[in-house]
């Protein structure tokens, strides 16, 4: 997949087109509303952030949030979206980097929270083990990986992206890398983006020390 081309072709990927959902994941906002995730003052990270809606949501709740994308056009779109959103001081904590996830360096001590939505499923399946190893490398011991597992139920032979996934695939990838399963729950229809209902699970994984 040529992601830069996906972002830049035909005048550029607009809000609401293809995978761009025009808003933060409702699952993430619901989790943050629940108070069940310590977010204030944390270092949060969103790989494959696209236009950065989830980065902004994490920054609004008090994190210093870094979004990373391999496409320079995506990063430019994210910065423009942030700068147009009149976020005040929150904007200074919504940061973007144009880099490859697999070679990115974590800040001193590692990230506290990583949010992965439509990132693992965007990668060719042969990169999945490296995805898990990179997560273990960049998340601090005791830190949390939050995965919105999508698309569940898609035939793995159907190709992608998005490539089909299951909660068990995440378990098989993350357990050998030292992640403990905190919870895996089906996402209620009301919290999914349009056309993604009944295809999503929320997984929470703690990196053991
Ligand atoms: C399916 S899109 C999802 C974007 C965003 N999470 C969203 O929900 O709107 C996947 C994103 O991952 C980025 N990407 C793909 N491979 C990457 C890599 N190796 N490192 C960093 N970003 C990557 C793509 O450019 C693309 O923006």
TrEMBL record:
Annotated Pfam families: TPMT (PF05724)
Give start-end ranges for the coiled-coil region(s). none
GO function term, MF aspect, one: S-adenosylmethionine-dependent methyltransferase activity
Q: List keywords of the entry alphabetically.
A: Methyltransferase, Phosphoprotein, S-adenosyl-L-methionine, Transferase
Q: Which SUPFAM superfamilies match?
A: S-adenosyl-L-methionine-dependent methyltransferases (SSF53335)
InterPro entries given in the database record: SAM-dependent_MTases_sf, TPMT
Q: Which BP terms does GO give this entry?
A: methylation
From the Swiss-Prot or TrEMBL record, give the protein name: Thiol methyltransferase 1
Which species does the entry assign this protein to? Answer: Cymbomonas tetramitiformis
